[in-house]
Every structure is written in structure tokens, then in C-alpha cells.
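Protocol step 4 of 6: record predicted structures for both targets in the notebook before any analysis. Target 1:
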Amino acid sequence: MYNDLTIGWNLVEGVVALSAGIVAGSISLIAFGLDSGVEVSTSLVLAWRLAQERRGGCMASYDRRATRLIAACFAVLAIYVSYEAIAQLVEQRAPDVSVPGIVLAAASVIVMPLLARAKKRLGPVLGSQAVVSESRQTELCAWLSAVVLVGLGLNAALGWWWADPVAALAVAGFATFETIRTWRADSLEDTCCS
């Protein structure tokens, strides 16, 4: 259920953020939209992992593979956003103000922490490190929403164009941290029946 809600929310969030980001020339909004795509990808990986659970047997190899795929999604996001944000800073490309982006980021600041908490409680119940890792992606989305909101707000209120790529670099930093943490994550004790 939480996975379906996450996928639905992030599909809408991704389309709106990417569209608004492209129109405004905002790398932080584009990064936010891409993060939504990563979130959908990790939710699909999680759905695959949970489908394996229904088949029974040892889940350790499936869980490890799912966790590594989630880490790879974080890595791709970090690399792309870092490159684009640095290019925007170097070229001094000022984004336009994006009211739809500000509204979307504010809504995500409210919705995403609720979904993350629900998933975090579910992971140990299922004995799945993949579910726990996926809940971290949802937490990351909540933090990213706040960072993007600050960057967009500073650009809109004070004309600080550089706040947008700096916010995008913060997104990349969060994604890099999660890449490392997720890649190194240990399996939960009861992932595999002994």
C-alpha cells in the first residue's frame, strides 16, 4: 500500500517538478523531479523484492540485489545533478521564479515524512533491508523538498539565482551519502530463514 502511494505521488511530483524546472531553467527543480524518478525506480525495485517474498524461501540474495539497485539509483542522481549544478554556477545561468515548483516542494515537505515513517516501520516487520533503504529514499525526498523550497524561495524573494544550483548540489550531496550508506547496508537478521 505505502509503495503504491509512493509511486503515485512521485509520478505526479516528478512530472510537475521536471516540467516546472525545464520552464524555469531550475536545476534544483529538475534534480527534484529526477529524484522522484529515482524514488519510483526504488519503489519498483522494492515491489520486485516483495514479490520474491511471496514465493518463500531465503530472501537474502534478493534483498541484497534490491538494496544494491537502490544504491545505484542514488549514484546516478548524484553524478548527473552535480554536473548540471556546477555547470549552472560556472555559466551563471539564473533560473526564473517557479510558483508551481514552490507549491510542489512545500506539499512534499508535508507528505514525504509521513510515507517514510510508515515504510521504516514496515521494513523490520518484513525483515527487509531493501524496505528500510527505500524508506531512506523517501526521507531523502522530504529533506530534498525542504532544500529545494529554500533555494526556490531565496531565488524568488531575494533574487539569489545561485541558491538554485547550490540547493541542487545539496541534493547531490544527500544522494551521494545515501549511495554509500545503502551500498554498505547490512541485511536485517531475519531476511533469510536459517
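Target 2:
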Amino acid sequence: MIVLIAGPYRSGTGDDPVLMRQNLDRLEAAALAVWHRGHLPMIGEWVALPLMQLAGSQSIGDAVWESIQYPVAHHLLEKCDAVYRIEGASKGADQDVRIAMERGLPVYHHLEEVPAH
């Protein structure tokens, strides 16, 4: 399966780049765990961050940032087979879960729920 990893990136950071990097590190650790269970992990920021930079985003939350950050995850959900929602408050991740559920995709909240392949 292709599994979207959903969790905090910007949430709770006050836009502090160090804290955002720590959140990305947690997302990536979850991605590695999903990989080890036999699936292809995907994180929206892996696509969104370079696109935002190339599109000229000057600051977190600017118009360019907003036009790319969340829409990327929504487009990825059209290609993903499941969502792994890691811990932590995140409106964006909660929105990803809502969209996944509307599309009938499985949503896992614990690594052990992700089927081993």
C-alpha cells in the first residue's frame, strides 16, 4: 500500500523552524516504520516543501505556502491506500483523516494496526 503519514508539522510550533523540523523528523520516523512493515510511506511535506520553495514562498503561512501545503496532501490522498495518523494535535492531519474516511480508506492510529506485508 501507499500510506500517507499524517501528523503535526506546523501545529504547536509557533512557526519555529526548529520545532517544525522536529515534527518532520517524527513524521519521517513513522514513515520508516511503515516502510519496515512492507509499504510505501508518503509525507505531504516531502512534496509540498520543495514546491513551496520553488514557487517563491517567503514565509510560513504566506499565500504561496497556503496554496500548496494542504492541497498537496489532499491530492496525495487520491493516490494513497491508507493513512497512518501519528500522535499530536494537528488540524491538517485531522482534515486528512476526515478526507480519507470519506473516501473509505483505512486510517491507522497505531503502527501495529498497519498490516505487515
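Step 5 preliminary note on target 2. The longest strand covers residues 2-6. The beta strands are 2-6, 40-42, 82-85, 107-108.
Proceed to step 6 after PI sign-off.
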